[in-house]
Write a structure and sequence with these properties.
Distance between the termini: 21 Å
Order of helices and strands: HHHH
Largest sheet: none
Number of strands: 0
Strand content: under 5%
Shape: elongated
Structural class: mainly alpha
Radius of gyration: 16 Å
Number of domains: 1
Length: 101
């Protein structure tokens, strides 16, 4: 687990990006839990609540990655599957020891 955290911290060095992720990630979890709860209660009529929370979460994280200058994790996964180039660590933060794509 420590390697995963180290990699995550290396990809999220800008303080604004970290702050946006500190808000966005819990929002994502809350939105998913809200969606599961609503489905369990059979509340299809308010589908927009968890959808909105999840959308705001991803928007915040996307802004963080735009500030950072790298791709989001989900985008990296898709680009890897399609054999497309991606930016895991922003060039301004890349060191000699940082792995390239």
């Amino acid at each position: 687990m420590s390697a995963w955290i180290h990699d995550w911290l290396e990809r999220h060095r800008h303080p604004v990006s970290r702050w946006l992720h500190a808000v966005g990630i819990p929002l994502l979890i809350w939105g998913l839990l809200l969606g599961v709860w609503q489905l369990a209660m059979w509340r299809w009529d308010i589908w927009w609540r968890p959808t909105g929370v999840i959308a705001v979460s991803y928007l915040l994280q996307w802004v963080g990655h735009a500030i950072e200058g790298n791709d989001m994790g989900e985008i990296i996964l898709i680009k890897r599957l399609l054999n497309r180039p991606y930016v895991a660590i922003a060039p301004r933060y890349r060191s000699e020891s940082s792995p390239s794509q």
